[in-house]
Amino acid sequence: MSVNRVKPLYILDTNIWLDWLVFSDEAIKPLQALHAAGQLDIVYTSDMRVEFLDVISRAHFKLSIEQQILVDKRMQQIAREVPAQSVQPSIRCQDRDDQIFIDAALAYAVDWLLTKDHHLLDLRKRAAKQGVRVGTLLDWARAYPTAHELMERV
User: Fold this and answer.
1) In the sheet that 41-44 helps form, which strands lie side by side, from edge to edge?
2) Could you tell me which residues are beta bridge partners of residue 135?
3) How many domains, the chain?
4) Is 25 inside any structural domain?
5) What CATH number does residue 56 fall under?
6) Residue 68 near residue 57, CB atoms below 8 Å
7) pLDDT, tens digit, 9 for 90 and up, residues 80-123
8) Where is the signal peptide (predicted)?
9) Is residue 142 part of a domain?
10) φ, ψ of residue 81 in degrees (nearest 5)
């Protein structure tokens, strides 16, 4: 399935969303800047959102219910929800919880699936054969000259 797009399409895994919405990690700033400038589009599925909500509700994040609601609303403002789609051929991820990310990345032929998860990073070569780049923020910055320049300024 394709989505209406005129700019690069991205999926962020839960850890990247945490960097953006909870930790305000410096490494996320170039991505935020390009998004704010309207130079990329971010999508998620309802399953990805459910996982994110589960993670931010864990006690070690120390987020109140109100903070969790605000973080969730912010995610919905930044990205748009798309329906989950099955994809053939699929790439199997060793961690079932991460399967939703690679499935959506392939189904929507995203430009980037940004992640810190080693199970997803292990799928780089197989995803690349299907036209999807899987990588870290640093991988992305190295491949995207504008982002690299922004990373050096941050």
Assistant:
1) 80-81, 41-44, 9-12, 112-114, 133-135
2) 114
3) 1
4) yes
5) 3.40.50.1010
6) yes
7) 999 998 776 678 877 788 899 999 999 999 999 999 999 999 99
8) none
9) yes
10) -80, 135
